[in-house]
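Re: duplicated header lines in exported structure tokens

Our pipeline writes sequence and tokens for each protein into one text file. With two proteins the header for the second block appears twice in some exports. Here is an export where it did not happen, for reference. First protein block:
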Amino acid sequence: MSNENSPASSLYFKVAPGVWGMKDMIVNYYFIQNSDKSWVLVDTGLSTSAPKIKKVAAKLFGENTKPTCIVLTHGHFDHVGSVDKLADEWHVPVYAHYLELPYLTGHASYPPPDPTVGGGMMSALAFLYPNEPIDISNHLLALEDNDKIPGLPDWTFIHTPGHAPGHISLYRKSDGVLIAGDAFVTTQQESLLSVILQSKQISGPPKYFTYDWEQAEISINTLVNLQPKIAATGHGRPISEPELREGLELLLKRFQQVAIPEQGRYVDDPAVADASGFIYVPSGRKSRAGWAWIAAGAALGLSGALYFMYARHKRSLA
């Protein structure tokens, strides 16, 4: 088991009793331990995250450990990058909401990410982000429609669409711990500087991948009504009361002004999905021209920043 005062503990951060997270370059994933010492992995980060996940798991739970299962908040590339490799190695099931299954079984792509939403370099480079499906059919199971999460008896899931059709958040009612995925985040994810510095700011879902802003606002309202005490998100640092309550209430109150971009492919014309995938995606012809050229120039800065972040993590794992 881990010694959280050891140097190895810098690999991860504690969220709440039995809940730890790790920031891997641009995204977080989480480890949840039950009272019987079994544990579950929530999301799997990037394609390079698998060895880091296994190292943290070994520090937290012991060598050669494996989770009961993997739970996905949604299927965007930065949350499922290592899921196939880990599920294959561990021989464990992967659970997701049934509306995410098309993107996890190779049947449908997400709508194209939108580089025109503004906010910084992470948005400008969104045209580079993969939106194609992966295929983990041999491991994948749908969560049942009863809010229960296999392997996590003390937790429930809440359907929080808008950023992805089958996006879920995980909630432990006993102490108000919320793992919100990308339903909201605690940094301005559109800004590369904010991502690097992890500047704390409760923000709406990352703008460049959010396909339905009305649903996203309803999801925020649902989470506000839970009155969580601690929240951990897919991007940014954990946040707790009273800052959490105040920030979420302000986000909901000013959602139209601060969360929804002034322009963008899906702002006035949301994409539409059903259990088969997306059945309508707006053309994007109204999007402002020239962003690809701006993004191409900005790519040089991004590549340098990401290399720095990767090198720092590599040194910490050495």
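Second protein block, exported in the same file:
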Amino acid sequence: MIDLRSDTVTQPTVAMRRAMAGAEVGDDVYGEDPTVRRLEERVAALLGHEAALFTPTGSLANVLAVRTVVEVGQEVLCAADAHVARAELGAHGAITGLTMRTWTDGPLALDQVRAMHAPDLGPYFVPTAAVSVENTHNFSGGTVVPRADLEALRTWADDVGCALHLDGARLWNAAVADPAPTEEYLRAVGGLFDVVAVCLSKGLGAPIGSLVVGSTEAVAESRVWRKRLGAGMRQVGVLAAAGLHALDHHLDRLAEDHAHARLLAEACGIDPAGVATNIVAVPHADAAGAVLRAREEGVLVSAVGPRTVRLVTHLDVTKAQVEEAASVLSRALASTRPTTGGS
């Protein structure tokens, strides 16, 4: 099967497995795992922040990160189809007691954010503590939020005293897609936010792991909450080593995934110029039917809603496989498209 459901399905490479097997380890709850510490220091520096904390999942990294900037009874603003709102099972409200309001016009709608912002008016209304932005934006088809918009958001947030959280699960893809040098982009964009969550187990191909990145104080608070939620980890340098290997060997190659996504887009009738990274969102009247038809021909894709098929390229899918999948998908989409007229 050619698996285009997500970039989370990748298998560790042989070289990554060797790095994991040879990792130097210690007890991470005591802060004594040297490989974890190297990973945390490296990612913090890459994103222009003081510190980072290794977590098992991206959802946990987001919960911990948002918790550092939003207190119980305060609110975070985000896009209606943001991962923190749609795909984390209500964890933010259930665990940290915050509320959430959403805008509807794309990954970052500055005018709506300004209009929605609620100042602290005392014990009457819920105040806005933070804005959360997802970059790249998953359910918008891997959209990269323009850097100028992020800079404008930072300026506005400073003016009103609002914190900013970046769900950067696929920030690596955004950095590789940008014309600026990758490390320059990561420092510049990461530095615009008070706290950032980044994932190693999507485009970079590690088997597990994300990080919370921010100030020393924010990361110390996140460490306490990580333990409180039962996610303290012991000799996890074997996992952190996969992340370090991925940063060394799998970052620049994300450009291949982006090129493969544009090839798939063209086969599915989507303008490839509108595909910035490794995700293709294909509107279709019968998404579930298209998914089943593609599976019958050996290609796995996802339905993200009744009328959208999602394709995600990654390091385990070669160009030849992408070309084969493109042929299958063009047929599957056509054969399941409802006909009109006639009884």
